[in-house]
Amino acid sequence: MVHTSLDVVDEKISAMGKALVDQRELYLGLLYPTEDYKVYGYVTNSKVKFVMVVDSSNTALRDNEIRSMFRKLHNSYTDVMCNPFYNPGDRIHSRAFDSMVTSMMIQVC
Amino acid sequence: MEAAAGGGCGSGPPLLLSEGEQQCYSELFARCVGAAGGGPGSGPPEAARTVPGTVTAAAGPVADLFRASQLPAETLHQITELCGAKRVGYFGPTQFYIALKLIAAAQSGLPVRIESIKCELPLPRFMMSKTDAEIRFGNPAELHGTKVQIPYLITEKNTFKRMDDEDKQQETQSPTMSPLASPPSSPPHYQRVPLSHGYSKLRSSTEQMHPAPYEARQPLVQPEGPSSGAPGAKPPRHKASLIRSFSVEREPHDNSSNYPDEPWRITEEQREYYVNQFRSLQPDPSSFISGSVAKNFFTKSKLSIPELSYIWELSDADCDGALTLPEFCAAFHLIVARKNGYPLPEGLPPTLQPEYLQAAFPKPKRECTLFDSYSESMPANQQPRDLNRMEKLSIKDTADFPVPTQDVTSDDKQEQNKTRLALKSTADEALPKDMSEDPATSKDSNSLKARPRSRSYSSTSIEEAMKRGEDPPTPPPRPQKTHSRASSLDLNKVFQPSVPATKSGLLPPPPALPPRPCPSQISHHNVNSERSAHPKPPTQLPNYGDFRLQKQSEQVSEAEIHPQLNRAPSQVAESSPTKKDIPHSQPPSKPIRRKFRPENSATESQEPPSTVGGPVSAASGKPHAAVQKQSSKQKKAIQTAIRKNKEANAVLARLNSELQQQLKEVHQERIALENQLEQLRPVTVL
C-alpha cells in the first residue's frame, strides 16, 4: 500500500520539474475499491517523503489540518536528523518524535 | 492494623496502614527526618497522635523522596496538598504517611484522592538508590530483604522499560547493572571493566591529566556524601568501599538519603572535567561542538548508538545539531551516569538543563591553581545530597580513569601537560564561582579532610604524568657541550616548530622571529641532508640532534622537502640494511646530548646507503665550505648543521623502522617456512 503510494509520489515529483520547491502534495486519489483510505504525500526539500495514510471513515480531515500535520512532522524530523548518532534511513527511535506523532494521531482520531 | 494511627490524625482522614506499610512508612519517615539533621528513629505513630508535629520530616528529603516516586510534579503537588502538609506547614508523620499512600495510589494508576487511599494499596515505589531500606519498596507482598531483591529488580526492569524502547537490549543488563544487592555485584563489576577500557581510550586520546583530579574527587566526594547524609558518617569506610565494585558499596553508603534525581546534578569536579573535555574538542568555551565531533567523542564511551542517540536527544535542547558547553556537560553527565548503571531519564532533569547549568556554573574566566581553589571552595561546597550519587559516579569514573594513566604515550603526556594547565585554570575558575553561589554546608570538616588527601592523590599522579611528560621535552634544555653559546638560540629555534607538534605546555613560547629563517634554512639543509646519505666532515657531526619531530613538522610544511624525504627513505630502504644496530642508537626520545653518538652512528649508517651519497657529496661540500668561511656566522652554521643532523636523524629513524618491519616480515616468512618444513618432514618420514 505504502509502496504503491511511493511510486505515485515519484511520478509526481518527476512530473513537477520546475516546482521542486513545492512542499505539499495532496492527493486523494488512492482509493482502492476494497480499502477505503486516503494517502497524503509530502516531500521535503531534501526529497524525504512523508506518506500519511488515513482512513476514509475519518471525514473531518481538512486540507489545512493535513498540511499542519505534515509541517509538524517535518519539524520533528529535522530535530531527529540533528542528532549526529542518527543514521539517515534508520528507524527513528526518538522519543520526542514518537510522542509528537502519537499526539497528532490522537488528536485526529 | 493501625487504625489508631488513622484515628490519631485529626486533620486527615482515617489512615489504614497494614503492618508492612506501617513499617515501610516509618522507615521512610525516619530517613527523611534523620536526613534532615538527625531526628528520633522511627517515630511511632503514637507520638504523632499525642503530639502531632513533634517529629517532622524536613521538606528537602521529603521532596526528594517524592520525586523519587517518579510521579509528575503536578501529582506530587496534589499529594502534598491533600496530605495536609501545606495546611499545617510541615510534614508530620501523619501527613507523611498520607502522602506515601497517595503516592502508592498514584503509581497504581488511581486518581489522587483521599478516597483512594482508603483501600488496600501496594507500597509506593521509589526510584531511589539501592539501600536495604529501599529494597522493601516496590513490592506490596514481600518485605523481606532477600526476597524483595528480586521484586526490586523487577521494578527496576519496569522502570527501565519505561525508558527508551531501544534500551531493551540494556534491560537484561540493567538488573545486573542496578547497583542493588549482592547477586548483581559481579556483573556490574565486570561491566565496569570494559567501561574502563572504553574510557581509557577516551582518556588517553584526550587528556590524561583528568584522572588526577578524578582521583582527587574520589576521596573528596566520599566524605561529602556521608556528611550530607548526616546519619552515620563513615568516611573511611566509604573511601575504601567506593573504590571497589559498584553495587556492594553503594548500599551502606546510600543509607543516607540518596534520591534518584540527585545523580543528575553535576558536581564541581565533574563540571571541571566536562569543561576540559569540551575544551579539548573545542577551544572556545563559548562556542559549540559540532555534531560529528561530539559523535566521535561520545562514541568512545562505548555506549550503544541508540543510547547515545537518546542522550543527544535529551541534551541538545535547541536541536541545532551542536552542543554548547552546558549541553555538552549535560550529555557527558548522562553518559557517565548511564555507564555507571543509572537508567536514562525520561526527560532532561532540571539540574541538567542548559539554563540551569549555565546559571550554576558560569563559564570560568579567571585563573588560579587547581588545589588552592579546592581549599577555597571547601566551605562553600555544593548541594547536600546530590553529591552522594555524584560521588559514586565520579568515583567510578575516577576508578576508571586512573587505569589508563599507565598507558600513556609520550605525545599524550605532552598533551596532558598542556591540558593539565588548562584544567587547572578552568577548575579554579569554576570553583570560586561555585563558592559564591552555593551555601556552605556542614560538610566543611569532612571536605577539609578530603581535600588535602585529594591533593596528595592528584598531586602525585600529576607529578607522575608531569615527569612522563617531561621526558620527551627535556632534551632541549640540557646543555650541549659544543654549543654552549648557541645552545639557547638553537633550542628556541628548534623548539618553536616542535611546540605545535608536541603540544607541550612546558616549553616556553619561542620568539617569533627566529623560526622564520629556520624553514628557509631548513629547506636548504633538508635538501642537503636528503642528498647527504654520505659521511660528512667531522665539523658537521656535532650538530645532529633529536629533532625528528620538529623535522617532520617542518617537512610537512615544506613541500619541496617532501619528495626528497620520500626519495631518501625509499632509496635507503631499498639498500639492504647492514647496520641496523646503529639506528637503534638513535631512538627518538633520546636527548640532544646524544648528538655525538648518533652523529657518529648516523654517519656510519649513512655509509652503506652511500649509493645515493655519491653525487650528493659534491653538493654538500659547497655549503660546508661556505659555512666554514665565515666565522661570524658560526652560530648559523651550527644551527643549520644541527638541523641537518636532525633531518638525518629522522631519515635514519625512518629507515630503522622500515628495516625493522622488513626484519619482522622476514622473520614471519621464516617461521612460516619452518612450519611448512616441519609439516612436510613427518610426511616424508612416513
UniProtKB/TrEMBL annotation, chain A:
Gene3D superfamilies: 3.30.450.70. The keyword Cell division does not apply. Keywords: ER-Golgi transport, Transport. GO terms for cellular component: perinuclear region of cytoplasm. It is found in: Cytoplasm, Perinuclear region. SUPFAM superfamilies: SNARE-like (SSF64356). InterPro entries: Longin-like_dom_sf, Sedlin, TRAPPC2L. One of its GO terms (biological process) is endoplasmic reticulum to Golgi vesicle-mediated transport. It comes from the Eukaryota. Its main location: cytoplasm. Belongs to the TRAPP small subunits family. Sedlin subfamily. This is Trafficking protein particle complex subunit 2-like protein. It comes from Canis lupus familiaris.
UniProtKB/TrEMBL annotation, chain B:
Residues 567-576, 600-609 have a biased composition (Polar residues). The keyword Zinc does not apply. This is RalBP1-associated Eps domain-containing protein 2 isoform X1. Residues 223-232, 625-641 have a biased composition (Low complexity). It holds the Pfam family EH. Keywords: Calcium, Metal-binding. Residues 426-436 have a biased composition (Basic and acidic residues). InterPro entries: EF-hand-dom_pair (IPR011992), EF_Hand_1_Ca_BS (IPR018247), EF_hand_dom (IPR002048), EH_dom (IPR000261). Residues 159-195, 218-238, 396-641 are annotated as: Disordered. Residues 303-338 form the EF-hand domain. Residues 21-122, 270-355 form the EH domain. Residues 507-518 have a biased composition (Pro residues).
